[in-house]
Design a protein that fits this description.
single chain, about 150 residues, Ribose 5-phosphate Isomerase B, Chain: A, five-stranded parallel sheet, 6 helices, about 15% strand
Amino acid sequence: MIAIGSDHGGYRLKEEVKKYLDEMQIEYKDFGCMDEESVDYPNIAKEVAKAVQSKKYEQGILICRSGIGMSIVANKFKGIRCALCHNEYTAKYARLHNNANILAMGADDLTTNQAVCILRMWFASSFEGGRHEERIKLIEEIEDENMK
């Protein structure tokens, strides 16, 4: 199950992403926003990050104009590794090496086709473990030290 959310700047791309998820029969919950009316992106990112953090949702997708704000907010939550991906390469390695659990995308930078290609790679890739497992443990130690 996927938690998905966008602000008003990412709304149109989010709606296209939902069509792709529907076609692929991937279950999701839309945490907003529900139209192009201006909203504060931190509130949407917070809800998606909390949903993934709770483990009720396996992964999340966040979309705003650049993807930057959403990724910053999501990464404030312990256990969340949100990756801002611009292409298939970054999506692949976000999953393979970093075990990212939330994908952020920038609506102003991507066509619908590009976003779908990123999603395909994201879903096709899984964490390699091995030497990368030790690095994830280091990230978790840093979280434990600094996220009170």
